[in-house]
Every structure is written in structure tokens, then in C-alpha cells.
Amino acid sequence: MNIIIGILIPFLGTSLGAACVYAMKKEMNKKVNKILLGFASGVMMAAAVWSLIIPAIDMSKDMGKLSFIPAAIGVMAGIMFLFSLDKVIPHLHIDSNKPEGIKKNHLKKSTKLVFSVVLHNIPEGMAVGIAFAAVMNEGSAITFASALALSIGIAIQNFPEGAIISMPLKSEGVSKNKSFIYGVLSGIVEPIGAAITILFSSFITPIMPYLLSFAAGAMIFVVVEELIPEAAGDNFSDISTIAFSIGFVIMMILDVALS
User: Would the pTM of this model clear 0.85, i.e. be above it?
Assistant: First the structure.
């Protein structure tokens, strides 16, 4: 039951963020948007390091000085996986009119905006699922408290992400209810991905260090390729960098304090 709650926490964060569409009359202030993006980037980067890469290295300590190998392979594999998805899935970033992914499609702009967030949520759902799968593995370097810290950290990051998807949709003429639903649906991939990962946990135990770092690599790709450039745009690099630092430190504290 605790694990079920753990994998649902990030989805709750997305849903609460999407609900901002009912509280705000106008579109989100651009400066606030950049601050939230910077904060989310910091949370994801810290989660990748403390909650995923370091435990992956700890699990491989029997390899001695070569214990970095599974983490290094996993990170690069995760980056290449998200790079491939980025080139295939048709999506559109906030404040951009240039769609990415497969060019020949007939998707609406609102659908492409949702796909953009779904692309972010894929590695996050994987990370939470793999972390809780590791908890179920006896002798794992990840404790339930540590996995819960990761889940809470991603939920904190998902709150602004839910708002960032629902508010622009409303400004595009989509109704509040539909904007909220789209925002919620953009996060549903996380608990589904986490649940599938946990179901197959008994089969993935031997390669757990690779999977943890794989999820970390995927998250790092999203942060560096999409979130940070979006956060720093329109001459907001200073304030978004400060927000990144705050998000990074908060996630680091959560992981250490709760583990």
C-alpha cells in the first residue's frame, strides 16, 4: 500500500498544478513561468544524482574501482533513449511555434503541448518505478524513505509543470475543464510507467544499477535539452539560475534527510 501511495504522489503534484487553471484568470506571468522551470530543472538534476546515480554506484561496489561502469553505461543509454524519443514524438515547447519530432502529422497545437510534457514525464515515471522496485529488492542501496524522497521531489517538480501545461492551453482558447484534463492526462504516464516497472521488478533486479542510471540519464537529457533553455530564455537567465539552485538544494536535502 505504501508503494502504491509512493508512485501516485508525483501524479498528485501534476494534478494540483493543472488545477491552477481554475485559480488564475490570465495566463501565467512569464517571469513566474521561468522561475518554475528553473526550479523544476534543479529538482530533477538533484534527483538524478542523489536518488539514482549514487545508489547505482553503491549497488556496484563489488566491482571495486570499476563500480562506475554500470552508472556510466546507464546514463548514456538513458540520454540516447530520450534523444531518440525527442526526434520521433511530435511535440511543441511552450513559447515556441516550431514543432519537433515527426514533422508530417495533423495533431493540434494543444496536443503537441501535452506531448511535450509527456516526454518529460516518461523518465520521471521510470525513475520512481525503478526506485520502488529497488526497495523491494533485499540488499538494495535504496531505502523506502529514499524512494519516497524521490517521489516527493518529482511531485514538487510536477506542480509547476502541471500549471505550465494547463495555463497556456487556456490562453489558446481551450476551456478550463479541458485544460485541466489535458494537464492531468500529461502526468498519467508516470504512475502507469512506475507500476509496470514494479510488476517486472523480479526480472530486472540483476540490472538494477543500469536501470537506475538509465532513468537518471533520461532525466538529465530533459533538463539540459529542454527545461534549462526554456527557463533561461527572454533574458531571465539570472532568476531561473537562482530558482535552479533552490530546487537542487531542496531535493538534495529531501534525499539526505529522509534516507
Answer: no
